[in-house]
Amino acid sequence: MRALKWFSFVLLTALMLSACSFPYGTPDAAATLQAVYTAQAATVSAIQTQTAPTATPLLPASPTFQFPTLPPQQTAFPTITAVPLFTFTPIPPITRCDQAVFVKDVTVPDGTVISPGAQFVKTWRLQNTGSCTWTTAYALVFSGGERMNGPAAVNLPGAVAPGQFVDVSVTLKAPAADGRYTGYWMLRNAAGGTFGLGENAQKPFFVTIKVVGDMTTVFDFVAEYCYADWRSGAGDLGCPGNVGAKNGYAIEVDKPQLENGQKFNGKGLLTVPQRVNNGYLSGYYQPFKVQKGDRFRALVNCEYLANGCNVVFRLDYRIGDGKIKTFWSFNEAYDGLYYTVDVDLSALAGKEVTFILTAHANGKADADKPLWVAPRIERPSNLVTPSATPTRTPTVTLTGTVTPTRTPTVTATITFTPTVLPPSATPTVTATATITATATITPTPSETPTPTVTASPTETPTPTETPTP
């Protein structure tokens, strides 16, 4: 019994030692069994030695174990052949019955300069990229933009098979006012459907021109400045203004000197704001009827050597008794430069507009001397009629009482000197008349004739034109 315990201990120890000596990874089954068998044989030998110490029997030879050969590990994998999920087949482009491609501008390339009112012929070269033949029932039609006096439709000159080219033309007339104009055109098939360019045949082709013509001054802000109502925060001011007045003033300047030192060969307006923080000066001019194409033009800067001048120039306006609005503004600080103003007034076309020249100080106004150089409204010359420049003459009515003498011939000689005071929109005229009257009268003994002599030069100022003072 004792020998059996010892045998079990030895066997367990051998197994433990064998387990500790296993390498990391997958154990070798054959090597493990061989170690167990060797330990068992040693144990049996030891037991036999202890139980029969004096005898030395011959032990049978240890059996030879044949371990099965493990199949080799797989080192190669079979080749996988990719099977496509689908095969891509290109979709051919859709061919439309009616479709066009723009080739070139045969006449009047984009941006061509044309005189106001001038007639011209625009020609496009197109290609039929559809599947249908264009017949003479097809037409060039206006699509949008500026029509330029063009017709609603022009039929094609002949049949155009798919793939062929055709020149399509339309006679147009340039607008009267300066500017850039674009008109859009398309084609129309025999069924009345319109088509044009692009993938969906929905894009129009177009003509773009630039109209440039001579301009005529129709309103001179310098010539009219004493017919304007000048105001500041201190109230209404006189005209011409009192130079140096703290309440602000406006005066005409002949050949004004610009910030860069050059002198302008013309006239300007010096509009000095009230000498307070953020002070201003505004001149309310007589109503003026704006037409399409009218432009406000001027040079703006500060008076020469007005260092520290920092103002906002504004062209304000009011229609009727409506709210005052700003049409244009510009912030000017003395920097030795002057700036050109060229503003299109067409947005106000057809309206009687009260224009307001405003100079507004940016902070302190002590150094501010804003100068408007040749402020005016210009109109395309072809829109100005010869009667557009009337002469201002005041309306004067004189009544004299004449007592005839024995001389039967009376000659009335009237001498008057009108004095025009224009601080408001309606000039006030004071006339001093000297009357020497001689009349051809056959009086009765009881009659004292009283002839009335009336001199009526008529003033009809037209604010929409250029007055000659």
Question: Can you tell me about this structure?
Answer:
- 9% of the residues lie in helices and 34% in strands.
- With 469 residues, the chain is mainly beta.
- The chain has four domains: 2-51; 100-213, Immunoglobulin-like; 217-384, Jelly Rolls; 398-453, no CATH class.
- The strands form five sheets. Strands 11, 12, 15, 16, 18, 19 and 21 form a seven-stranded antiparallel sheet that branches.
- Strand 23 and strand 24 form a beta hairpin.
- Helix 1 packs antiparallel against helix 2 (29-51).
- It starts with a helix and ends in a 33-residue tail after the last strand.
- Mean pLDDT is 77; it is low at 21-25, 50-57 and 393-469.
* Reported CATH architecture of the largest domain: Sandwich
Quaternary structure state of the chains depicted: single chain
What is the CATH class name of the largest domain?
A: Mainly Beta
The tally of structural domains comes to 4
Strand content: 25-35%
What is the string of helix and strand elements? HHEEEEEEEEEEEEEEEEEEEEEEEE
- Which parts are unreliable, with pLDDT below 50 for 5 consecutive residues or more? 21-25, 50-57, 393-469
Radius of gyration: 54 Å
CATH topology type of the largest domain:
Jelly Rolls
Based on helices, strands and strand pairing, what is the structural class? Answer: mainly beta
Mean pLDDT: 77
- Distinct helical segment count: 2
The dominant shape is flat
Gap from first CA to last CA: 152 Å
Helix residue percentage:
under 10%
Biggest sheet record: 7 strands, antiparallel
Report the strand count. 24
